[in-house]
Amino acid sequence: MAASLPFTRRKAGRFWIILACLLCLGSAVGLVLNALSSTIVFFMAPSQVVAHPPAPAQTIRLGGMVVAGSLHTGKTANNTPESRFDVTDGQAAVTVQYRGILPDLFREGQSVVALGRYDGHDFTANEVLAKHDETYMPKEVADALQKSGRWDPRFGPPPDTASWNSMTTPPPAPQNKQGAAE
Amino acid sequence: MATLATIFCPEGGHFALALACALAFMQGILPLIGLRRAESPLITLARPLALSQCLALLFAWACLIIASLGDDFSLKLIAETSAINKPWAYKIAGLWGNHEGSLLLWVTLLSLWCAGLALLPAPTTARPEALPPRLRARILALLGLVGAGFSLFCLTASNPFLRLWPVPADGMGMNPLLQDPGLAVHPPLLYSGYVGFAVPFAFAISALLEGKADALWARYMRPWVISAWALLTLGITLGSWWSYSVLGWGGYWFWDPVENAALIPWLTGTALLHSVLVVEKRSLLQGWCLLLAIATFAFSLSGTFLVRSGILNSVHAFANDPARGLFILGLLGLYGGGSLLLFAIRAPALPSPQTGFSPLSREGALLLNNILLCTLCAVVLTGTLYPPFMQLLFGRTLSVGKPFFDATTIPLTLPLLAIMGVSVALPWRQARTDKLLPRLAPALLVTAGNILPAFWLFPTPLAAFSALLALWVISAALCDLILRLRSLPVGDRKLHHLPRSLWAASLAHIGVGVTILGLCGMAGSQERLIEARPGTHTTLTGRDWELTALTAHHGPNYEAVEAHLTIRHHNAHGPILATLTPEIRLFPQQGQRTLHVAILHRPLEDLYAALGSVKEEHDPQGQSHYTAILRLHENPLASWIWLGGIIMALGSGLHLLPARRRLLRMKRQVQA
Questions:
Q1: What residues contact B159, with CB distance under 8 A and at least 6 apart?
Q2: Do B375 and A104 touch (CB under 8 A)?
Q3: How many distinct structural domains can be found in chain A?
Q4: For residue range B623-661, what is the model confidence (pLDDT) as tens digits?
Q5: What pTM was estimated for this model as a whole?
Q6: Which of B313, B357, B404 sits opposite A35 (nearest CB)?
Q7: CA atoms within 13 A on the CB side of A70
Q8: Residue in B with minimal Cα distance to A45
Q9: CATH for A80
Q10: What whole-number distance in Å separates Cα of residue B290 and Cα of residue B84?
């Protein structure tokens, strides 16, 4: 019974399978490429942000150390907590504005990653991340610190809060900011 | 007394682990030799070897648990993850929250699956469908080979019984985030799902070795695929619920590499679940089914181990050790690569199907389902692996998050849902359009009737459209159940007389629909962040939330601050709806804080409150005031997400119960 089936029907079955596979694969490749071009978020260190400011509409991940003494908190008119702090990689500092609850492990002098947009002056964060483990530094921040020459993993663990404070640049002066906006 | 336990337990456990490793090697090698030489004594060894390996591993666990309960900090694992003041339940559950313990758990669960296979009754005239002894021996041997590799890894590279000298007075304590009942059960469930896919893998390898993957083979394999799939579904559901209720960010899925590592084998496992059906009913797609079984297990392995080795950088990866990663990559290469090689050599020799394949048939729909699921899997895999590869090859640090996965997975899931509704109404071989339309009409009507309400209720058109498709899936499954009920003879029309497999499939589909409805509802969640003193009122979606008090209390190994919230209907004078008490716990030993979210689950929405932090402020009169930062959420249909997962898992589990037809046949045989 099965063997007597017309060959053309088997062939037609194959044709449908291949057509469906190709359609699916094609649409998946299209979707992935489209999504990769529009939704990918690049990581930048503060010095990179200052040297090559991203487009104001582009979301980036800004990572570095929170400058000690730079955290100011307040609240908006409708009781939403609001905070400002500076993030640095030892070469430049960027002021981050954030509306929301800072994560539990957010500390001055420790590493942080902020997700948001840079308008040339300030970085407006939608999300602020600090790792769950206090001794752990986000890999991207560690890499940025290495690139800026502030820390070499061969010489031990990342600098602690106290020594980091002495390494951080002072809060950016107004002329610096103008330089960044250009 | 204590010293005796201190000496005996770790060494006894260590010995039992070594013994289990040796037994696994024997289980892997002896039956295969026996099958080759047709020596039945060696073949029959498979069962006792599997059982004794399982007993040895359970004994190792017992030793580890006694040592942990007795605070034996001479064990490195216990010193690093436990502490004297940790609650006793977490002294046990904390054992599998780290690399060494979770690996031991993996190996033990594999041996439990083997024991399950070994304990199944042999085929008799009453149960002719039980696994034949030779096939069982072959499968136990293959599973023994898998277990041997991993218990060797456990013994050499990640031994949980390593000692520490000098013995510390107290342990370092566990990550407080892991001190949660959900996380105590999450790894065993997830792992038993991961490990469970080793059994279909062994079935696939055995089919390749024998050069035969027929309908009977698929029928033997199907219960194992279903049980592994159900456990993995439960594990993922629980993990998602954990991140919703413990991490306190209000989200249920973060597209974190660890979550994706569980989702990828789930997707291929779902495809496998459906393609096994096609092999069983129509003897088609055998090669594809074998490939899926191999791929699912390979993804499970990489999911468990690549994540743990820290190759995919993530919040969850608490072990960053490249040496272990290399060992694991070796094992993965051996099992994954070896089986793919075997597939490439042996698969072309499998008998090819002689029948046609109509696109408008059950098998056609199932094939389309497989294609879509595998495409989804490829997309998730791309999104997960793209960042580490870019980092490795081009040194560019980037992240791929929710926007990417939303943009790619949603357009692929929607057609999948549409097919799910049609497929239940399609017969095998060839469907006739004139018969198909009346079968689908009720579900179509229900869906069409809800178009306006859906667009009215759901916040975005996409959410409304997805919710309609979910409704389509649910109503098609229900409609199929009703039609099948009506096709039974009049005197026999009872719900429990329907075949178990039909119930399993319908409930699993309904579960998917319920989960999708939950996801669509969550698209409309409302969130408010407030900084409040006791007595402050806030309005969120027509309800009044009042912070009534802030109180402090002590836990066994933490200090806590609680915020007491009262939620009223309408406004500040309305009737009280609920009180919520979110809290912050401070663990002094680790210097770490955790949030404890308060959630009120209601049928149509969750009220969710998280306490972010508490500040002390002094006013000019010198009085201190406490201010709390609170996050309040209203999450529509949130609990449906996990309810759907439970329906999927338990519903498909129905399939494992003995079928009624079989029971009837047995009864008849007894009477005769």
A1: B14, B17, B100
A2: no
A3: 2
A4: 788 888 888 999 999 999 999 999 999 999 988 877 655
A5: 0.87
A6: B404
A7: 25
A8: B397
A9: 2.40.50.140
A10: 50
Q: Which of A104, A110, A113, A129 to probe the B interface (max B CBs under 10 A)?
A: A104
**H or E stretch covering B538:** strand B537-540
**Binding site per annotation, positions of A for heme:** 132, 136
- Nearest CA distance, B286 vs chain A (angstrom): 15
- Report the first-to-last Cα separation within chain B, whole angstroms: 62
In what helix (H) or strand (E) does residue A127 lie, and over which residues does it extend? strand A122-129
Does residue A81 sit in the same domain as residue A62?
Answer: yes
- Helices (H) and strands (E) in chain A — how many of each? 5, 7
Comparing CA positions, the residue from B107, B132, B110, B109 lying closest to residue B122 is B132
Q: Where are the alpha helices (DSSP H) in B70-173?
A: 76-81, 88-93, 99-119, 133-156
Q: Do A13 and B411 touch (CB under 8 A)?
A: no
Residues from chain A contacting residue B247 (CB–CB below 8 Å): none
How many C-alpha atoms does B182 have within 13 Å on its Cβ side? 16
Residues of B in contact with A134 (CB under 8 A): 591-592
CB contact under 8 A, A80 and B529: yes
Annotated binding site of A: 132, 136
Task: Enter the tokens of residue B375.
Answer: 């495409």
| C-alpha span between B535 and B492 (Å, rounded) | 63
Q: Measuring CA to CA, how many Å separate B70 from each of B64, B88, B557?
A: 10, 10, 17
DSSP at B587 = E
Q: What is the pLDDT of residues B471-483, one digit of tens each?
A: 999 999 999 999 9
Which residues does chain B have within 8 Å of residue A24's beta carbon, measured at their own beta carbons? 371-372, 375, 412
- pLDDT for B497-506, tens place per residue? 888 889 999 9
Q: Same domain for A76 and A134?
A: yes
Q: Which of A7, A32, A48, A98 to mutate to test the interface with B (most CBs of B within 10 A)?
A: A32
On whether the CB atoms of residues B151 and B37 are closer than 8 A, the answer is no
Cα-Cα-Cα-Cα dihedral sign, residues B315, B319, B324, B328: negative
Q: How confident is the model at residue B399 (pLDDT cuts 50, 70, 90)?
A: confident
Show residues of chain A in contact with B399, CB under 8 Å.
Answer: 40-41, 43, 61
Which residue in chain B has the smallest CA separation from A31? B408
Is residue A106 located within the same domain as residue A177? Answer: yes
**Contact between chains at A16 and B359 (C-beta distance less than 8 A):** yes
Chain B residues lying within 8 Å of A99, measured CB to CB:
529
Q: CA B277 to CA B280: how far, in whole Å?
A: 5
CB pairs under 8 A between A and B: 123
What tokens does B597 get? 């979210």
Regarding whether A145 and A92 lie in a shared domain, the answer is yes
Residue B372, pLDDT score = 94
Residue B416 has what pLDDT?
96
Residues B552/B562, Cβ–Cβ less than 8 Å: yes
Q: How many CB atoms lie within 10 A of CB B156?
A: 10
Using CB atoms, pick whichever of A24, A39, A134 lies closest to residue B372.
A24
β partners of residue B164:
none
| Cα separation, A136 vs B216, whole angstroms | 53
Task: Give ipTM to 2 decimals.
Answer: 0.72
Domain assignment of residue A4, given as a range:
1-39
Q: For B1-174, which CATH class?
A: mainly alpha
The phi-psi region of residue B397 (left if phi > 0; otherwise alpha if psi is between -120 and 50; otherwise beta) is beta
